[in-house]
Design a protein that fits this description.
Layout: E1 3-5, E2 11-13, H1 28-32, E3 39-44, E4 50-56, H2 59-67, H3 73-78, E5 81-86, H4 90-104, E6 119-124, E7 127-132, E8 144-148, H5 151-164, H6 184-187, H7 201-212, E9 226-232, E10 235-242, E11 245-249, H8 263-275, E12 279-282
Antiparallel strand pairs: 1-2, 3-4, 3-5, 6-7, 6-8, 9-10, 9-12, 10-11
Helix pairs in contact: 4-8
């Protein structure tokens, strides 16, 4: 690490931020107009393509923190302009960010990029089954547990849960069984015998349901779309949502496609919406 002389003349190791130089290829006018209110911001390259989309309760402060972060030098080197959009509050910023990232797939946004085969775990006749969003409406289906980006991730979670709760790998479909033959876990006293009839399918299913309980996917709690009303420094917005799917702001379109469950929106809204306290209008 490089060194520098501090204010009292001591030679010390330099913090990376000390060596940072403002990227002067980004026009200052697009920085100067950034507001200190909630909203989203977009870093664009020379072709005006979004390469990073973020959100904050203070747009100006958050963008300036990017400009002062040496670890983001690669993104800053490709940036030629920064846009912003104000929102009525933090939830609006979160929803708008998720929608734009899904739409544009910016190269420097990784966590919120589209999942290819979202799936969940359903219980069918006391047995777990992996179901996919393209076949099941997650927002309007009861008895779903966990949201996973791949089938492999769902299977691995189920495997770990079965081991931790002393469940039967045969009864859960993780191991092939044959009549009268105990599963491996039973042989080492880690299963109560559902594989050989010593534990009923109903009792085993109840224990499996309890073990999955903390991963329950909450059903959409309304009969149709709602508006979440937010206001910040004179900007009042209605964020339209249906079936854990963000529909945008303003007025609801009379003709629109059926709202499909969006895991990003679900993770943003599940707790605040079910906890109450938001300003809600039924549509």
């Amino acid at each position: 690490m490089r060194t520098h002389v501090n204010s009292v003349g001591l030679l010390v190791r330099a913090d990376p931020a000390f060596l940072f130089v403002y990227p002067d290829h980004i026009p200052r006018d697009c920085i100067d107009v950034l507001p200190q209110q909630p909203g989203i911001y977009i870093f664009r390259d020379e072709a005006a393509t979004p390469i990073y989309i973020g959100k904050s309760v203070n747009i100006r402060q958050r963008v300036l923190s990017h400009l002062r972060t040496p670890e983001e030098a690669q993104m800053l080197a490709r940036t030629r302009h920064i846009d912003f959009e104000r929102t009525g509050g933090e939830l609006g910023a979160l929803l708008r960010e998720a929608m734009l990232i899904r739409e544009h797939q910016p190269v420097f946004n990784v966590k919120l990029r589209k999942q290819r085969e979202m799936c969940s775990i359903a219980l069918r006749e006391h047995r777990p089954e992996i179901v996919f969003a393209k076949e099941v409406d997650f927002g309007r289906t009861d008895g779903l547990f966990g949201l996973f980006g791949t089938k492999k991730a769902a299977q691995e979670t189920l495997k770990n849960l079965v081991g931790a709760a002393n469940l039967c790998s045969v009864a859960t479909g993780l191991e092939k069984g044959s009549p009268g033959r105990p599963c491996f876990a039973r042989q080492i006293a880690r299963c109560r015998g559902a594989c050989i009839g010593e534990e009923s399918a109903a009792d085993h299913g109840a224990r499996l349901h309890a073990a999955l309980g903390h991963m329950l996917v909450r059903r959409w709690p309304y009969d149709g779309p709602i508006a979440i009303v937010e206001e910040s420094d004179g900007l009042r917005q209605k964020q339209l949502v249906d079936n854990w799917c963000y529909l945008g702001t303003g007025k609801l379109k009379k003709k629109r496609a059926a709202a499909r469950f969006d895991p990003a929106v679900y993770h943003i809204l599940q707790r605040p919406l079910l906890a109450g306290g938001l300003a809600i209008e039924l549509l």
